[in-house]
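Before we proceed, please read the two lines closing this message. Let me know whether the structure tokens fit the sequence:

…
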Amino acid sequence: MKLYVSIDMEGITGLVDQSNVFLQEANYERSRRIMTKEANAVITAALKSRCTEVVVNDSHSSMNNLLVEDLHPEAVLISGSVKPYSMVQGLDDSFAGAMFIGYHSRAGMPGVMSHAMTFGVRNMYINDVAVGELGFNAYVAGYYEVPILLVAGDDYTTTEATSLIPNITTAIVKKAISRSAAQTLTPKKAEQLLQEKVEIAIQNKHLVNPLLPPTQPTLRIEFNNYGQAEWANLMPGTKIEPNSTTVSFQAKDILEAYQAMLVMTELAMRTTFC
């Protein structure tokens, strides 16, 4: 069995605010070590459960957070940016399953450091389904008929996962008190929990269906202000919906919608407020 692991940072054990997840901040280096250990717990359990190959995609910010020198030697690491498919780079139909580790809840919802790709996004939709990073990435996996077997993060993230994917296994490594505070497991306890949950997720693989995306989906992104919508609208094929900050794009498939989302959110980040 070939396993794909996308690992973000905001949902990692003990990390609660920007001081933990931004490159320039004081706690970032410690966070990298915790993140790498959580990745290793997942890889170790997957190999123990007879996975023949584990591909890990570093999926946070600049996407070079994992300490490759400390990563399990049997893993294959995808690191760095720019990646054409960002958090799901390298995912294809050769994988029997995927796991999302260190994930967070979508923009506009409760949960530790909740957001969607950038802090300029208020909501994202595929047709009429509200999605965050978790849901969008799961749709891309579904395009390749790859089921999401495990999601790990805070309690709001796991609730979001179960609402989208019936029978999915989840691992709650912290419970949100606010968007920047949590009741959290210690790293060692979280690593133990993740190993247990990985084994259960692989055992229950047959119970989980891929999250199949709609054909020719409409992507809609609601931005926080009109300037962000104007920048996103510079991408050909987009339009700003009347009297709103929502920009829509008609895609030929979920892969095109995903890349459109990447372009639109990157453009929107150029907005200034002076």
User: Anything to note?
Assistant: Residues 28-48 form the longest helix (21 residues). Residues 25 and 165 are 35 Å apart (CA to CA). The two ends are 53 Å apart (CA to CA).
